[in-house]
Amino acid sequence: MSANAQQQRPLCRYFASNICFKGDNCEFSHDRNAKPDLVCRYYLQGACAYGSRCRFDHVRVTAAQKAVPSAQTCSLEK
């Protein structure tokens, strides 16, 4: 499996605990160095039971990152 395909999948929680029996057939990543692309919703709530073994990212999302830009119309002058 390519390194790019490995990085697009969340880390296998069983592999992170050294107990994944699926090996190359696992649908999750077995690349410990891959950066998770999803923030752990339980961490954001302050209660992730997996801690450092979590397959999701443990970072705080800032208010600016949460903010959705307001809808604006675009007018093009001719």
UniProtKB/TrEMBL annotation:
Single GO MF descriptor: zinc ion binding
Zinc finger residue extent: C3H1-type: 6-33, 34-61
SMART domains: ZnF_C3H1 (SM00356)
Listed PROSITE patterns: ZF_C3H1 (PS50103)
Catalytic activity: S-ubiquitinyl-[E2 ubiquitin-conjugating enzyme]-L-cysteine + [acceptor protein]-L-lysine = [E2 ubiquitin-conjugating enzyme]-L-cysteine + N(6)-ubiquitinyl-[acceptor protein]-L-lysine
InterPro entries reported in the protein's UniProt record: MKRN-like, Znf-CCCH_4, Znf_CCCH, Znf_CCCH_sf
Keyword Cytoplasm: no
EC annotation from Swiss-Prot or TrEMBL: 2.3.2.27
GO BP terms in the entry: protein polyubiquitination
Protein name: RING-type E3 ubiquitin transferase
